[in-house]
Amino acid sequence: MFSAETIAGYLNGSVEGEPSTVVTGVARIEQGKPGTLCFFANPKYEKYVYTTKASIILLNRDYELRESIAPTIIRVDNAYEGIASVLGLFEQKKLANKKGCDRFVWLPWRFKKGKNCYIGAYTYIARGARLGNSVKVYPQVYIGENVTVGDNTIIYPGVKIYQGCVIGANCIIHANAVIGSDGFGFAPQANGEYKKIPQIGNVVIEDNVEIGAGTTIDRSTIGSTLVCSGVKLDNLVQIAHNVEIGKNTVIAAQTGIAGSSKVGESCIFAGQVGVIGHLKIGNRVTIASKSGVSKNIPDGMAMLGFPGMEASKYKRSFAVFRNLPALRDDVDSLVKKVAVLENNQEDKSQ
Amino acid sequence: MFSAETIAGYLNGSVEGEPSTVVTGVARIEQGKPGTLCFFANPKYEKYVYTTKASIILLNRDYELRESIAPTIIRVDNAYEGIASVLGLFEQKKLANKKGCDRFVWLPWRFKKGKNCYIGAYTYIARGARLGNSVKVYPQVYIGENVTVGDNTIIYPGVKIYQGCVIGANCIIHANAVIGSDGFGFAPQANGEYKKIPQIGNVVIEDNVEIGAGTTIDRSTIGSTLVCSGVKLDNLVQIAHNVEIGKNTVIAAQTGIAGSSKVGESCIFAGQVGVIGHLKIGNRVTIASKSGVSKNIPDGMAMLGFPGMEASKYKRSFAVFRNLPALRDDVDSLVKKVAVLENNQEDKSQ
Amino acid sequence: MFSAETIAGYLNGSVEGEPSTVVTGVARIEQGKPGTLCFFANPKYEKYVYTTKASIILLNRDYELRESIAPTIIRVDNAYEGIASVLGLFEQKKLANKKGCDRFVWLPWRFKKGKNCYIGAYTYIARGARLGNSVKVYPQVYIGENVTVGDNTIIYPGVKIYQGCVIGANCIIHANAVIGSDGFGFAPQANGEYKKIPQIGNVVIEDNVEIGAGTTIDRSTIGSTLVCSGVKLDNLVQIAHNVEIGKNTVIAAQTGIAGSSKVGESCIFAGQVGVIGHLKIGNRVTIASKSGVSKNIPDGMAMLGFPGMEASKYKRSFAVFRNLPALRDDVDSLVKKVAVLENNQEDKSQ
Q: Which of A149, B284, C14, C306 is a Cys-bridge partner for C292, taking CB atoms 3.0 to 4.6 Å apart?
């Protein structure tokens, strides 16, 4: 439960109305009930500003009310951004309360962990693993030998982290993600079989990284697969062995980066993108969804298509593709006309 | 074990031969052994009708035997559909028997569950969660705070359901699926970092939904990500935050629906389809495998390609694409011929 | 810990220097420390041959040293392949040591397992399941009724194997893979709903198969989904019901094979490939990443594109696609020129 005053303080906002009004949750403006907080940002919803039953409403500082309203008002620079922070307030409060160790937890001999950790039931932590302060490990997680996890990191149920991997501070790893599974490396043999190339590197996840549900990150053959600080990976993403993902790069769901490719900083990859192995992708590269990248990409380029091309060029080519049958018809008709013209010229030259 | 009579009753069929013949399982017609039931639907297998060792055979009502056969016969309108029901008989019998609570189950204080539930070992059920009647929860499942699960729903091993999600009745959720993980929402900051936008909505799965292994469904930012009744999702499908999937829509493996898109009723999406965010897909839309959808689609349209186009139009364009080098050659040759023609005309006009 | 002599014996190599030199691990040549072994294969790193602090160095037999070096040398035909084997030595030693049964393991009545098995905590093994010799089952694994697992197979944390599946010998199954989930089969009903077609077959994995993290393999409707010996599947691969994958075929991450398709032997599929259902793919077929296969493919063909075509043909078409706007311009200009030519001819014929 938070008061208007507390929330306004948190948001650097100002209260109009009763500062002691309290709320226990957030609602959409059109569904606001007493005890909830709502916000107004999208003009389409303006009418609800005057009818909402919410107890507190977030308004932009420059919004002029046409008449007085019932809820306590908190004025902020940007109500839309403000609501995110309010949600964070509630969420963090709830999570921060979870600490201690459930029954049925497998801990190693001489286990090293920081203060205020939570470890859920049926979680297995192998020998040599270490947790920082305020780490939350949900139930049914596997943390292999010598894994280290930084402060404040949250590991959701069913995550599996193989031996020797390093997880930074302030990370969030969603359910059933797998970190440190063997890279996909095999040496073809003369008889057609493949011999496994042992993968004895690890995965290093730096700070402030979020990893989506079901995402898989393979360990390096030797050395480290590296996910730099601030990277955000969506669900079901595949990061192969020896890959490096630069700082603050964002990768949407079901994208795959093949072995040994290096992705720069501050890139944005949409969903279902594929990057083949051994490439170098620059900084601030944008790749449209479903695109396939098979060549190095310089800094700042926007890519689209399969095979991927510079986005604007691909769009121009695709615009013609849409009408290819008409182009074919034009050419067929030209062929006929030119034959007639050639015939006529020949007739005349005879 | 079921008798021919029981099975015929179940299928609305009629028995020819001994009604008390019993079977304990189903076999392919070419592999039928005593004590099994087989069916004949594909003409390619007709010879086996006369040689199978199965004890019971399902035949279409209109199939005329060329000679008498050993197995007891059950005549039905459609043997192929009939076999599905018979399989169901056996399967349901087996599953329905599972009830009770294994040891090593984590249950909350004052846990509310219906009759005839099964809860497997190492499953964690958080406070406030409720199960309906005859719910089967396999081992190693995580059910978060305040989750509700409707009657007869089956949750296979390793499924993780985050707090506050709602699962309907008669649903099946396959192993390692994740429901309610955070939506992929971040606000870019001036310094290049991204700030997490808390995702405090939930996921609502209505009745009769099947969800494949490893599929991920993210919770909404505010409100609900919604999967309507009768929807069938295959394996490794990604449903992003705020998405809605309409009634009886079927989505094949590895397809991804990006944030806030609304998919209509009775659509059929093949595998590896991608739908970008904030779109509206109509009812009864069909999308071919691997297609990318980047625009709204009206009711009933068939889509194909990347970027996606109306299927028939895409096919015509692609037919020309297949022979683009020939088209290029035709044009090159025309360019030369026209140059010659122009030259000749000029010569003559001089 | 291994001596130079032991390692040389294992690699069929010869020692130059002290055969009793021992190492406890492997390092990159530029990071070699005493007690480690390094290798030299990439000419870019040649200078480190003369400066590395590693205790043992693997060199190609034909490499000529320019001056004497400190480490003990092991000469082999191919240092790069050699290092893989050395890594294997260390890895296998570590793993082979793991045996016995953790506490909190769910074992069935009259459980049958071979010698030297390891079973991790929170693993559930259902009735009728059997493990061969030296099987390693990590924590939090689910092994359903009557599943059999062959000798030396390693099953990583969180793997779920449904009832009745058969896993061969010397297999490796990575974390959170799912084997034997229901095939995606539904019969449309007159009212728009879908009725589940029970999937009562199983999955058969032969020997020497590796299965990546998060990969899903569905059970057959009737009969078996079959993964033949020597097959290697990367992460997040989807194998649908009734599929067969031939011997020694390698399939990279996020590829999906739809229902009932048969893939031949010794094929190589890159990442994010899609194969639609009911196809027959020959032996030794190569499919480039992201390609979509919608037709049968004969032995030995290389495929590329979406829809997939013979790779060389696709590349030629795509080369024209890149410059389609220029082609369109050429045609437009031809149309004009031909109109002028026609006009002129007409003028003259008048």
A: C306
Span B94-111, average pLDDT: 87
Catalytically active residues of A, by annotation: 241
Which residues, listed in sequence order, are joined to residue A225 by a DSSP beta bridge? A203
pLDDT value, residue B349: 67
Name the residue with higher pLDDT: B219 or C85. B219
Domain count for chain B, please give it.
Answer: 2
d(C-alpha A51, C-alpha A311), whole Å: 46
Q: Tell me: the pLDDT tens digits for B190-201?
A: 899 998 887 878
Tell which of A41, A70, A96 closes a domain.
Answer: A96
pLDDT interval class at B309 (50, 70, 90): very high
Residue B156 sits in the same domain as residue B235 = yes
Show which of residues 157-216 on chain C sit within 8 Å of chain B, judged by CB atoms: 158, 160, 162, 176, 178, 181-182, 184, 186-187, 192-198, 200, 214, 216
C343 in a structural domain: no
- Indicate the helix (H) or strand (E) that contains C325: helix C324-349
ipTM value: 0.84
Same domain, A278 and A182: yes
Query: Residues near C187 by Cβ (< 8 Å), separated by ≥ 6?
Result: B81, B84, C194, C195, C197
pLDDT tens digits, A230-249:
999 999 999 999 999 999 99
pTM of the complete model beyond 0.90: no
Dihedral angle computed from the Cα positions of residues C204, C209, C210 and C215, in that order, rounded to the nearest 10 degrees: -20
Q: Which of A140, A316, A343 to mutate to test the interface with B (most CBs of B within 10 A)?
A: A140
Could you tell me if B104 lies within 8 Å of chain A, comparing CB atoms? Answer: yes
Residue ending a domain, choose from B33, B62, B96: B96
Residue B61 lies in a domain: yes
How sure is the predictor about A95, in pLDDT bands with cuts at 50, 70 and 90? low
For chain A, the C-alpha Rg in angstroms (whole number) is 28
Residues 6+ apart with CB under 8 A from A42: none
Give the best residue of C103, C142, C312, C330 to mutate against chain B (max B CB count within 10 A): C142
Q: Do B260 and B143 sit in the same domain of this protein?
A: yes
User: CA of C201 to nearest chain B CA: how many angstroms apart?
Assistant: 10
Closest residue of B to A105, CA-based? B122
- Residues belonging to chain A: 350
**Triad A278, A281, A285: Cα angle to 5°:** 155
> Nearest CA to CA, how far is C20 from chain B (Å)?
49
CB contact under 8 Å between B158 and C162, yes or no, is: no
**Could you report the per-residue pLDDT of B10-47, keeping only the tens digit for each?**
788 999 999 999 998 899 898 899 999 999 988 889 99
Q: What pLDDT is attached to residue A84?
A: 74
> What CATH code is carried by the domain that includes residue A238?
2.160.10.10
Contact A323 B317 (CB under 8 A): yes
